[in-house]
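Chains adopt folds. We examine one example:
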Amino acid sequence: MTVDGMAIHTSLEERVTAAEKAIVELQMHVLTSQPINWLQEITGSFKDEPEFEEVLAYGRAVRQDESLLKLQDES
C-alpha cells in the first residue's frame, strides 16, 4: 500500500483487466467446447455393484408382474 494511492489504483486496474481476460477465455471455452453426453459418461459405472444388480432384478420382476406395483400402492 502506498501513500499516494497510485499503486493501489494500478493494482485494481490490473486485477480488473485480468478478470475481464479470464471471462473472455471462459466464454470462448464454453462456445467451442462439445456438449457432454451425461448418459455416456455414466454408462457402465455401476456394472460391478451387487446392489445395482439387485435393483435391476427387482425392476425386471416388477415389469413382469404388475400386481407387485398394486401391492406397493396399497401399503
